[in-house]
Structures are given as C-alpha cells and as structure tokens.
Task: inverse folding
C-alpha cells in the first residue's frame, strides 16, 4: 500500500538557518503530494502541493519539488523564522476520493 | 478558510459510553473525511463520505461508525468508547476543484477515562 516516510525530529535550528525536511513516498499510481503545517493547538493548514512530476510547489518562502525518479518531495526554506516553529506533515493522495496518506510529522523548533 | 467547524472541541468521557462528534461544512463539498491524530502515527483515516448516505471505511475504522444524512454534516460515533480512542479527531473536506486538496477543521480533543 501507499506510505510516506519523513524525519520525525524534533529538528532544532537557529533563526535564519536553511531548512530541509526530507519526505519520500511509496505509491502504486501517480499521486499528488502535499505539505501541511500544524501550529500548536490548531488544525492542519495546507502549505503547498504538487500534482505531477517535476512540479514545484511554493508558499510563504517554502518550496518542494515532486521528484518521481527518487520518489521524494523534500521541503526547503532558505531562511527560517521563529514563527515557522510547528509540526510539518508530508502527505499523498493516490486514489482520488480516498483519504490522504500521511507521514508521521516533523516537529520543527526555531530558536532566536 | 474552508468553512469547517467541529463540535465539541473538547470532550472527556468514560470507558463504555457512546460519543458522537460532529463536523459541519458550509460550502456544499461532496467529500468529507474523519481522521485521528496520535503521536508517532501522524494522521490516519477512520471513515469517509462521498455523498449523502454514502460512506466507506478507512484504515482504522474498528470501533467507529459514521452517518451523513445531509450534505453539510458528517457525524462520527464511538459506539462504546475505549481508552485507545483517546485522540485528536480531525474532519476534512475535499475540494473537487483543486486537484484533491483536503482542508481540515480545527479538531476535537477527546479523552476517554
């Protein structure tokens, strides 16, 4: 079946550091890929998405490129801020109406 | 804002009691989902609905039932709550016009004692 693997953390960085959160997936079809962010005490917010190979999703300075050859969708940001502290989830949608398959989430902590 | 509300937002109950959680949407989306979030597991699909009275099971459906008698409401029922069902429950809708993107409600934190 489908699966998503991501580093769980916590990942601790200093403000203005470069961020990479790795995400790899296994899917039977041609999935759409998503990154969601969850701030403390809140629900999940869509951060970015990509629906086909080589697409790049971007939002709020975050980027991720759909790499079919390496089955990856790594999240990057050039300069993180304290306000980026949150839990980040990688997810895929492979079968249309069925639900999303999520990774376990990566807890990111940014220190001033 | 996808117009999704969940109620209650917090609930404490005792083992063996039935519990119903409600998800309400205001934008007439066809697809609705229930997930649970647990440490070390991410989010896992419990049940989903693809229309009024049309539902199907997800990965972790045992001990849960759902109902959807009108488009805007999707109910999740724990028939007889157990401590293993202590979790945070999220409802989501799927926006059919934006390539399978799902949008999530604020969540319900459930504690089963």
Result:
């Amino acid at each position: 079946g489908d699966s998503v693997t991501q580093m769980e953390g916590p990942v601790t960085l200093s403000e203005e550091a470069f961020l990479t959160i790795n995400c790899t997936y296994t899917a039977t079809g041609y999935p759409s890929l998503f990154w969601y962010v969850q701030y403390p005490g809140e629900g999940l917010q869509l951060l970015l998405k990509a629906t086909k190979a080589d697409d790049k999703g971007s939002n709020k300075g975050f980027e991720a490129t759909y790499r079919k050859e390496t089955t990856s969708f790594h999240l990057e940001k050039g300069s993180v801020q304290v306000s980026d502290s949150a839990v980040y989830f990688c997810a895929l949608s492979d079968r249309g109406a069925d639900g999303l398959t999520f990774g376990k989430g990566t807890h990111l902590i940014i220190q001033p | 804002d996808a117009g999704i509300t969940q109620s209650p937002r917090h609930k404490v109950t005792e083992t063996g009691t039935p519990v119903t959680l409600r998800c309400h949407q205001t934008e007439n989306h066809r697809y609705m989902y229930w997930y649970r979030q647990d440490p070390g597991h991410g989010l896992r699909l419990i049940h989903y609905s693809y229309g009024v009275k049309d539902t199907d099971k997800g990965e972790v459906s045992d001990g849960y039932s759902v109902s959807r008698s009108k488009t805007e409401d999707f109910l999740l029922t724990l028939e007889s709550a157990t401590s293993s069902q202590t979790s945070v429950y999220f409802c989501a809708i799927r926006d059919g016009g934006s390539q399978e993107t799902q949008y999530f409600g604020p969540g319900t934190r459930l504690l089963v004692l």
Summary: The two ends of chain B are 33 Å apart (CA to CA). The CA atoms of residues 36 and 42 of chain B lie 8 Å apart. Chain B touches chain A at residues 31, 33, 35, 40-45, 48, 50, 58-59, 90, 92, 94, 99-107 (CB under 8 Å). Chain B is about 0% helix and 60% strand.
